Amino acid sequence: MTEGTTTDKKFSRVLLKLSGEALMGEQDYGLDPAKLEIIAKQVQSVTRLGVQVCVVIGGGNIFRGISGAAKGLERGTADYMGMLATVMNALALQGALEALGTHTRVQSAIPMDTVCEPYIRRRADRHMAKGRVVIFAAGTGNPYFTTDTAAALRAVEMGCDAMFKGTQVDGVYSADPKTDKDAIRYDRLSYTEVLSRDLRVMDASAIALARENNIPILVFSLHNPGAFADVVGRKGTYTIINGEG
Ligand code: UDP
Questions:
Q1: Residue owning the nearest CA to atom 6 of ligand 1
Q2: CA nearest 240: which of 215, 204, 213, 208?
C-alpha cells in the first residue's frame, strides 16, 4: 500500500485492538459479560460485511506488568503474568463470539496447547481467509512489550489493510477530553505528529511499526453501538493516523 491511497481504500482485512479495560464496563476489575456481548456483536457485524477480522486483546483489566513490578515482582515475571491475563480475555471474547454463532480461533504467542492454538502466522492467515475471527493472545510473547505493539506487529504480519483501536473516546484529542474542556479532536494525524506531540494514543513502538509499514490506524469509540462497522465503512467519527499530514 502506498502513502496517499489509504484514505479511500475499501478494507478487506482489518485488525481490532481492544484494551483489557474495554471489557470491564463500569467495574474496577475483570470482565463484564454485558460489555463482552456488545463488543462481540460489533466484531460480528464487521464480519457480516465480508471483512476479515483479527483481534489483539490487552490485559489491563486483570494485570499489568508495570504495576506488578512496582509491588516488588521482577518485571519479567510480572509481564508474563500480564500476558497470561490477555489469554483469559481472549478466551472470554471467544466465548462471547461463539455464543453469537461467529467462528473463532484463539492463538497465543506463548504456546499452551491444551487451551488454544499456538501463534502460527500462516495458520492464522488461513483461518481468516475462511472467515474465522482470529484472536491473538499473549501479546508479542515477550516481556517489556505491550499489546499495542503486538497489535501493530500482527497487523503487519497478517497483511491487514488497517488497524482499528477501540477506545473510550471517539478519536485522538490534544488532551484528555474527560478532564480538559478545551481539548480538540483531530480528524487526521500523521504518525510523526502523534510521536512528536506525544499524543499517547498507542505506544511509540506501535506507531513506529505502523509508520514503517504504512498501516493506517483508525481510533474510534467503542461506546457507540455499531461504531466498529461504521468506521470500517468510513462513516461516523474517528481519527485516522496515516502517512498524510
Ligand atoms: N505484556 C507483555 N508483552 C507483550 C504484551 C503484553 O509483557 O507483548 C504484558 C505487560 O505486562 C502488560 C500486560 O501484558 O502490562 C497487559 O497488556 P497491556 O498493558 O498492553 O494491556 P491493555 O492496556 O491493552 O489492556
A1: 146
A2: 215
